[in-house]
Design a protein that fits this description.
This protein is mainly beta and about 120 residues long. It is built from 1 helix and 9 strands, in the order βββββββαββ.
Length: about 120
């Protein structure tokens, strides 16, 4: 199964949540196998070396076939870069004994924070 491509916009300093659903062509939920975990990373470019700008662990509803990515206000602030308009991200699935699989990928555009703490 090819990765879902989804670009989205976040507001720096505000929480953000997006849910991805895994379905078949008829729209029926495809559950995830027990033990499947997800990993999110955001980088300046897909080939950027060094540590990612942001990492977190999305929540998986194994039965409903959904993955929910939640970013806190602190995490969205980390995406507010003065010289870069957007970053790339990917969510990968991991399950012991099976190859890792990319689930979703795309670009994140960050609206700069004007009112700051």
């Amino acid at each position: 199964m090819a990765a879902i491509t989804h670009d989205f916009r976040v507001e720096a300093g505000a929480g953000f949540t997006v849910t991805f659903a895994r379905t078949d062509s008829a729209g029926t939920a495809l559950p995830f196998a027990t033990g499947t975990t997800a990993e999110f990373q955001a980088r300046v470019t897909a080939r950027a070396t060094g540590s990612p700008l942001l990492t977190t662990t999305p929540t998986i509803d194994h039965t409903a076939g959904t993955i929910t990515l939640t970013l806190t206000d602190v995490q969205t602030r980390a995406l507010d870069l003065p010289t870069i308009d957007s970053v790339v991200y990917a969510i990968e699935l991991h399950k012991a004994g099976t190859p890792d699989a990319r689930f979703a990928e795309g670009r994140i555009t960050c609206s700069p924070e004007v009112v700051r703490p």
